[in-house]
């Protein structure tokens, strides 16, 4: 049997655009004499459609769409994901389904059993789980059609009381098809292959796996759809981070080597570029504006943006205050020149002074402090947003994950933006990204990387005045955020008690700030945003 | 059997404080010779603990707490909610449990079967559902111990394939205990009684119902714990919006009349006051700062804040620009005087001009527009945040739900704040609240209510220049947001196609703004925030 894999980048709710893309791939598969073409989970709607699923109109349009696509299936089978209505009285209103289309008809449906509801996933919010196991019989083969999580209840991922493939395998399928929406994090490419091979080992069956590619706001899909034989050898592997298409003869294809796995920093860089590019193109924006401080975060953000959007579409602005050092300005200028970006320098001194003057009668001679520091960051925020409003450029936020974690940033100031590029990248990894960027030539001036980080909001300020050393900070944050270790466990691992308690307290009392930040491109297994849901008002570790 | 109901206001993760409150109520119940005292769902941790549940340390502390509380249960039974660990290999890591404590021991556990995962609820994210039904045998009675949602699979709420009380009732219980965390919306008091009586009718059993009271950031719990006999007559009913305690003899109490149900606007006002009061007291803040525009939203917000925090704790600031009308200033002053609030007037003209001057070379002689309007709103935002930072006051946001829905507000400007007071109240209801506030005397100057709403960001601006009439707008928004009706359904109900499409488009393309707004006190069945999860990048109705 010849199977085609269509790895596509969908837009949520763009029924017309998604349908057209799908039909094009059906035609392409037919032209290559495929018997079957497989698309991703909820391909028709895009993933994740979130609460649009609560609108009958939305789900109805998805269903209308497959009846239309079915008219293109003369002589070919199609497996494709969409939400379907569950009959009334049988639990939740919807099912997360794989439809099988063939010869002009919508032939049958297979529903998802395991509904992920952790981290960024909310599937149990919408869907009733399946409990009826069947195989698809097509051209003399029995196919186990499964949806994403249905293959994930293996090894250390075990968290469900049912393992769907244990049930389906009793029906003696010839191979497994898994349609997925499995978002990227820098561990995911390795884990995905492990899980595919764990299933192959358990059931002794070949696997066809089709994933989404592209960015849906914060969620980044890396693609890497693939087919493995019953030994776990790769027969076909599609690209990372790009739309791709491939056809494989399940019966005669020769095993090939796995694609080489991307390294952590390289894959973060590629994922972020795709995230920025897709955010703009899917919303219909072209140009970004970035405030360039002379520090490493805005430098790396500018490079990612220039790679994603083209240098002609990135406008950077230097906004020095009376506390900005000379090197900040010259370093930022050098970077803009290296990247070939249009830049302007807009000093905020006069604006700052007018705030100072206006507020003087009300500040009661209290000493310079946080309020004055934040006025500078917020004046910059207003200038950047004014330019954004005037020219229709999207402001990119430059905060990193370490800062976001401990609240080291000004709400309505440097925390502004339509999208946070580095909000899921710890400061230590931002440094590593800078080195990666400079591999071939010095794009980011060396001084930006080597000087001690500073917000430059008061004389001689350094990050290290307020924060622990970034290496220690990031290590503790990783334990708390990614590993969900509590204070006792982190201290047991050898970190100083005072340091751990200080850091955890900073994280917990700044939830209110993160509540109001832009969406963050997710590259780690636990990003701030939809995947991490914390109370704002709470006393635990506060 | 004498049963005590303890309706308490917990702080999430405040194990010491919650434990002490609980022990005090156990002692109080003992002193009144109760046989049993009942607390709410997840009382030990506070509700909702959200992703703190992913920390073993957090759950362990909950479990430690009940073993401590058990030492106070000599001669009395206690039913209380907490998260417990589910044995490994049996699905998700936790259960949402009711513990029965008695005579110094933790005697037994009853686990929640139906895990709400819609709107603001995320319980399936953490908990494995129960599938083993037992009764509590205590002092010769059989008690059906259930947790919140377990009694909600009745009537039109039917959405689960299991109805736990159908199973438990086979064991012939004498009465039902339901421990709840059932947040307020203005329909909830009526629906709650309907659901209690639907259960009583179905099973012919008395019901003991204990709810939370108090605010957990955006979620407001109205209390109203109660006991009904097997005819559905009220035997005991605790207060709305206040901590309360009561004891009832299940065998001999006389039926009483139901408490009168609060009206929609009155209950919204009470809920919002509790929400503001609790936000401040639980975070340890005393004082609020509010920007007073002379419009109705900031006026109603100031009244709610003054009622919640005391007039001495509300500082209001008038921030006129060159476009502010004289009446705006005088109306705002009059309101501040009526309420006895400290107020200052801080004109933003100089600040606005310094932005204008600084940006002039970069704005390329483009005409006055949105950018300039937003600079004014953002200059106000910076001034208010500067005062907030300087004096440790929390800025209250004054946006209403109609504005939030269509994005009629400036991000990082008037959308700023630690908490949104009216973000779940449509403009039409803000008017009704103003009338309610003025019932006895004119607190809000009549002109604030009667003049046409205006943002006053350009000469002669009116809301009606950009927005449909609020009555129509709110009606369509209600259909789309609260009722989840799609465009076709709303048009079928008789609204003009162009109007509906315009409004729905405005809602959908401004998700990015609502993503960055403060938490909103929830008073409706569908508030912006954790209960409404929409993609930011999407083409459906955009």
- State the total count of DSSP E strands of chain A: 19
Strand content of chain A: 15-25%
| Average of the residue pLDDT scores of chain A | 96
CATH superfamily of the largest domain in chain A: Carbon-nitrogen hydrolase
> Termini separation of chain A (Å)?
60 Å
Profile the largest sheet of chain A.
6 strands, mixed
Multimeric state = homodimer
Stretches of chain A where pLDDT falls below 50 for ≥5 residues? none
Task: Report strand order across the widest sheet of chain A.
Answer: 5-4-3-2-1-14
Integer tally of domains of chain A: 2
CATH level 3 topology of the largest domain in chain A: Nitrilase/N-carbamoyl-D-aminoacid amidohydrolase
Largest interface: A-B, 98 and 98 residues
What is the architecture of the largest domain in chain A at the second tier of CATH? 4-Layer Sandwich
**Cα-atom Rg of chain A, whole angstroms?**
26 Å
Specify the overall morphology of chain A: elongated
Helix content of chain A: 25-40%
CATH class membership of the largest domain in chain A: Alpha Beta
Number of helices of chain A: 17
